[in-house]
Automatic annotation (TrEMBL), chain A:
InterPro entries: Thiolase, Thiolase-like, Thiolase_C_2, Thiolase_N. PANTHER family: ACETYL-COA C-ACETYLTRANSFERASE, NON-SPECIFIC LIPID-TRANSFER PROTEIN-LIKE 2. This is Thiolase family protein. GO terms for molecular function: acyltransferase activity.
Automatic annotation (TrEMBL), chain B:
One of its GO terms (molecular function) is acyltransferase activity. The lineage of its organism: Bacteria, Bacillati, Actinomycetota, Actinomycetes, Pseudonocardiales. It comes from the Bacteria. This is Acetyl-CoA acetyltransferase.
UniProtKB/TrEMBL annotation, chain C:
Gene3D superfamilies: 6.10.30.10. This is DUF35 domain-containing protein. Coiled coil: none annotated. Residues 67-137 form the ChsH2 C-terminal OB-fold domain. It comes from the Bacteria. Residues 31-59 form the ChsH2 rubredoxin-like zinc ribbon domain. It comes from Pseudonocardia dioxanivorans (strain ATCC 55486 / DSM 44775 / JCM 13855 / CB1190). SUPFAM superfamilies: Nucleic acid-binding proteins.
């Protein structure tokens, strides 16, 4: 099949609140940034994929339809993806699918998020759970990952300081990223002293609720060649899905542990196989991975094959994965821990990976980066999306 | 350096199953999805372990589930597989399934769309939240009112109410879609994976077009059904389009019967081409989110059961048909066999 | 030119109501709580006893085949102690855990009661992964999953 390129990406700054624009106007900002970066206009776009996770967070059902005028997309093929937190990257993969189908040469992914307008996001997110068994129990996206963190601690001997070091690294990175939401550097002591949300997750371990927009323009190889363009290239994609039931991810008969990210590892393996990545830690310069809580980043680093299971805390403690270190740099943007505009968080991972492999990431640039992996997670740690990006079409191995 | 671009594989709908109940109070939505998915896979000679990917579509406000793919991915056979939820409308999930196979992602896809409006105490209220909060929600916009506003553009000036069962002038209850609890599941396969010896033949996807118009009903002419015309234009750009003049049956989901009639009349179909042989909007009930998927699959079934050589499904989505999708199915995978199959099905069409 | 205005806000509430059909299997599980019984369903393919009872196994995409009553005691698999107030959710602090009950192959989620949650270190210590808990039942069952909880064994 023909290769698919990323011709342009755009992100607004991620902030707590935007009172100066409506939701469609916000989405338009991200779309225009992506189109400008690609050097094209909406007239050049053949189809649009819109990432939008829970409708209730923006307070409009099928809010994608509301944005058609603002995008200038009237009359174009248009569809929305909702894979929870993985939505943004699943939408990128859907756009990849549009191009790889041979039907479209230029596809725009554009969306936005304003969680701040929902007065009760975690109450909304409690409605994710099974109507019969789980809703009477106050599960939400924080508690579900606190449960995972406890298992990671138990299985691998990690402690709260190991989690805190993830935040310290990412805040240091985010301080170099003018788009990031949380940019204040913090210390391990600051994180450990922050208030407990759901033990072991503390405020310092948690992502913010971000408002912002992001977009990306994907193009076919024939379009790029015909116009003499040099996009970044999506070399591999991989998605996988785990059982919804967290109680099935523990115990002697489990297939994948809720404390690890084994099913995500399968998604990475699928993307690596397609991309020809055989030694992720040796071949990938950058990882922009979805980890909304500090504990999650540890097991995602391991699932991505950047180190062995349970080894991420020690590697992080010795300074690996941070800007300036040797080997793969993890979340040079500051990652989801510093900016989480839910619907487009996965688009942001692609955008950051693209900037990195093209050497356009400014102060957060990983020196000489040519290859990157990006990932996202949705549902209750259930929907997994990943992709491999490179600066050119040379063999990665 | 020129990289080869092999032709994308041909894709067919190889099984198609539905579960439609006026009010299903004995089974959960997830149980309906499990049973329907299992049946669709079995009808294609597959199990969940064999399927190359799963594409889902539901409307969270209808079902009262936030990110409803979470609880439905498992019953749809998605554990261990690539699952993508296309949330804009059920028919988009079918289109996306086709794109997935064309793009080389596996050999089969299970697509599942659903709506269980009986669980909503007030489905109209669930529709109301699709109105943007500043203006349309304040006037109480919902699918019925939007459909009536659209139909008012076609009503004769000063026409008196047609009957005493007017729901929203000019529409009567008989003009409007009925709701039911529905799950639709279908398996799509590339040519090399089409099962042999199935009781029904494959319905080859000959093309699809889809488009979405402006959101604000006041920013477009709802009577023009511009989304349909844009979708038809995209269909024409496909690599093997079948003109409407060759369609032998059409299934249309639309906001109202007048909208069905106007869409059908705009297609330029040969006289006598059956439209909605599977039932009127009221007789073939479906919540709006899956009505289009239901009609697209009804068209596929028309072909797979030998009642037409070429059939098309059309679905509208959004207030007053903001979006439209067209998918054309053929007994033959490519043009050339059409003339023969067209002749063959004349008798079938008369019989239907 | 129009003069500058302060951005305005428009408050909206989604008061959507639902009456969710739970199906026969979940209904029977919930009815069992009033009899102080925890019921699971066995998958004929992987032979796991799935608790709480589900009518199908998502691992094998197979309908479960028979009822299995499991013990009302088991082992903590994971837990959290919530200190943050979330609108629409209970007042903190409260503890949640998943526990695999004896005879079950999957874990059940529930509140953990009978702990002093104000002292976080001691609460965490008493809820360690691998610790035993027992299921307690409400004397006034509501027919929902709120009718049981865990207590340290």
């Amino acid at each position: 099949m023909s290769a698919v390129g990323v011709l342009g990406v755009g992100q607004t700054p991620y902030v707590t609140r935007r009172a100066d624009v409506t939701f469609p106007e916000l989405v338009r900002e991200g779309a225009l940034l992506a189109l400008d970066d690609a050097g094209i206009t909406m007239d050049d776009v053949d189809a649009v994929v819109f990432p939008l996770a829970p409708d209730a967070l923006i307070g409009v059902g099928n809010g994608e339809r509301w944005c058609v005028e603002a995008l200038g997309a009237a009359g174009k093929p248009f569809m929305r993806v909702n894979n929870g937190g993985a939505t943004g990257m699943s939408a990128v993969i859907a756009a990849w699918t549009h191009v790889a189908s041979g039907m479209f040469d230029v596809v725009l992914v554009a969306g936005g998020e304003r969680v701040s307008e929902s007065g009760s996001a975690q109450s909304v997110l409690n409605k994710m759970w099974d109507v019969g068994y789980e809703r009477p129990i106050p599960l939400n996206t924080i508690t579900m990952l606190a449960l995972s963190a406890v298992r990671y601690m138990h299985a691998h001997g990690a402690d709260e300081a190991d989690f805190a070091r993830v935040t310290v690294k990412n805040r240091r990175h985010a301080a170099l990223n003018p788009l990031a939401h949380l940019r204040e550097p913090v210390t391990v002591e600051d994180v450990l002293a922050s208030r407990v949300l759901a033990w072991p997750i503390k405020l310092g371990d948690a992502c913010p609720s971000s408002t912002g927009a992001a977009g990306a323009v994907l193009v076919s190889e024939r379009y790029a060649r015909a116009h003499g363009l040099r996009p970044a290239w999506i070399r591999g994609i991989g998605q996988n899905t785990e059982t919804f039931w967290m109680g099935d991810r523990v115990g002697p008969r489990m297939l994948a542990d809720h404390g690890d990210a084994d099913a995500l590892a399968v998604a990475f393996e699928r993307a690596y196989a397609m991309a020809g990545v055989t030694d992720p830690a040796g071949q990938l310069d950058v990882a922009e991975i979805y980890a909304p809580f500090s504990s999650v980043e540890l097991h995602v680093i391991e699932a991505a094959g950047l180190c062995g299971k349970g080894e991420a805390p020690a590697r992080l403690a010795q300074g690996d994965f941070a800007l300036g270190a040797k080997g793969t740099i993890v979340n040079p943007s500051g990652g989801v821990l510093c900016s989480n505009p839910i619907a487009v968080t996965g688009v942001a991972r692609l955008a950051e990976a693209t900037l990195q492999v093209q050497g356009r990431a400014g102060d957060r640039q990983v020196e000489g980066a040519r290859t990157a992996v990006a990932s996202a997670i949705g549902g209750d740690h259930q929907f997994y999306a990943s992709l491999v990006l490179s600066a050119d079409l040379e063999d990665i191995a | 350096m020129t990289r080869s671009e092999p032709a994308p594989p041909r894709v067919a709908v190889v099984s198609c199953v539905r579960d439609v109940v006026a009010r299903e109070e004995g089974r959960s939505l997830e149980e309906m999805i499990f049973e329907t998915s299992h049946r669709a896979l079995a009808a294609a000679g597959l199990t969940a372990a064999d399927v190359g990917g799963v594409v889902l579509s539901g409307n969270d406000q209808t079902d009262g589930r936030v990110i409803s793919c979470m609880t439905s991915a498992g019953p749809a056979g998605g554990v261990g597989r690539d699952v993508t939820m296309i949330a804009s409308s059920g028919e988009h999930a079918l289109v996306y399934s086709w794109l997935r196979l064309r793009s080389g992602q596996g050999e089969t896809v299970l697509v599942v769309g659903w709506g269980k409006p009986s669980e909503s105490v007030s489905p109209e209220h669930a529709e109301l939240v699709s109105a943007e909060p500043y203006v349309l929600r304040a006037v109480g916009m919902n699918d019925t009112i939007a459909a009536a506003l659209q139909a008012s553009r076609w009503a004769a000036p000063g026409a008196p109410p047609a009957a005493d069962d007017v729901v929203a002038w000019p529409l009567t209850a008989a003009d409007l879609p009925a709701r039911a609890d529905c799950v639709y599941a279908a398996v799509l396969a590339v040519e090399s994976a089409v099962p042999a010896g199935a009781s029904t033949g494959p319905a080859w996807i000959r093309g699809a077009g889809w488009s979405t118009d402006r959101y604000e009903p006041g920013a477009r002419d709802p009577a023009a059904q511009a989304a349909l015309h844009a979708a038809l234009a995209h269909l024409d750009r496909g690599d093997d389009p079948v003109p409407a003049a060759s369609w032998e049956a059409v299934e249309i989901a639309a906001p109202s019967e007048p909208a069905v009639a106007h869409a059908a009349s705009a297609l330029g179909l040969p006289a006598g081409t059956p439209v909605n042989a599977s039932g009127s909007l009221r007789d073939a009930p479906a919540p709006a989110h899956v009505a289009g998927l239901a009609r697209l699959l009804a068209a596929a079934t028309t072909v797979s059961e030998g009642r037409a050589g070429v059939a098309a499904g059309i679905g509208f989505n959004g207030f007053a048909g903001q979006g439209a999708t067209v998918m054309v199915f053929g007994r033959d995978a490519v043009s050339g066999g059409d003339a023969v199959s067209g002749r063959d099905t004349v008798a079938g069409r008369d019989a239907a | 030119m129009t003069s500058a205005v302060e951005p305005r806000f428009y408050t909206q509430t989604w008061d959507l109501s639902y009456r969710h059909a739970l199906g026969d299997t979940t209904s029977r599980f919930l009815a069992g709580l009033a009899e102080q019984r925890i019921l699971g369903r066995r998958c004929p393919s992987c032979e796991r006893v799935i608790v709480p009872a589900r009518s199908f196994c998502d691992r094998d995409h197979t309908a479960t085949s028979d009822w299995v009553e499991v013990a009302t005691a088991g082992v903590v698999e994971m837990f959290t102690i919530v200190h943050e107030a979330f609108r629409g959710l209970p007042d903190p602090p409260y503890a949640l855990a998943y526990a695999t009950l004896d005879g079950a192959d999957t874990a059940l989620v529930g509140y953990v009661r009978g702990l002093d949650l104000t002292d976080l270190p001691s609460a965490v210590a008493s809820l360690a992964v691998g610790n035993r808990v027992r299921v307690a039942f409400s004397d006034t069952p509501t027919g929902t999953a709120a009718d049981y909880w865990f207590e340290p064994a």
